Amino acid sequence: MQTNSGAADGSAEPAVLVARDDQEPAVAVVTLNRPERRNALTLELKDALVAALDGVAADDAVRAVVLAGSGKSFCVGQDLAEHAEALRSDPTSAFATVEAHYNPIVRALATMPKPVVAAVNGGAVGAGLGFALACDLRVTAEGATFATAFAAIGLTADSGLSASLVHSLGHARATELMLLGEPLDAQQALAFGLVTRVVPADEVLETALGLARRLAAGPTRAYAEIKKALALGAVSPLPAVLEAEGAAQARLGLTKDHRGAVEAFLGKQRPSFVGE
After folding, report:
1. CATH architecture of 220-266
2. Which residues of the chain have pLDDT under 50?
């Protein structure tokens, strides 16, 4: 099943594709679809991506999500030609897109109550890097590169990068990446813990789908609580973390998934998770 959201550049091609995995329909694949411009972000694409992510987040039949880019790039960030037009027209409102699009997209990916796997088939730059880091896991092509690019045009971070880079790389490396703007290749990103897997380019999507299928078959209620716990743990003092963990364990202890998994373990059987 496939649905389309918006149209890139006013053409017949949709800006974002939303499809269900043929092998596991509980996996939704959201694809940025502007390959001729390396999936640079226009207003149409950003509107479509917000709608697509809201849709899969709200769909109880979707238990895991893959975020991908069409063509040879994942996403190279804001379309600068469109941004230049916005600056010429009204520089005071040119950055309204941060609150209207970038923030909702990153929040949707990071807080979605189901796992999200990024299939990084090529360059992830600027906001594209922010989107990739907002996902829970990242499968990366061998030739992919990661870069911030903001300082090169006189800007600071957006799309959550001032937090996600520090959490992923530490303050020193995050500062270097932001100030100098030098790209990381896939192997550097793997060594720094920025990505989950590095595979040949033609295996990126299938590897990401494999992880998503595995997650879709798992305890999705627990995954949602794990995402919240890790986000809280990154910014909160230990007493608050311990309190939140205890409350989450109590909630999960009442689920069918937990009780069924305990009984399956005792019966030396494989548990079956239904998300309840």
Report:
1. Orthogonal Bundle (1.10)
2. 1, 8, 10
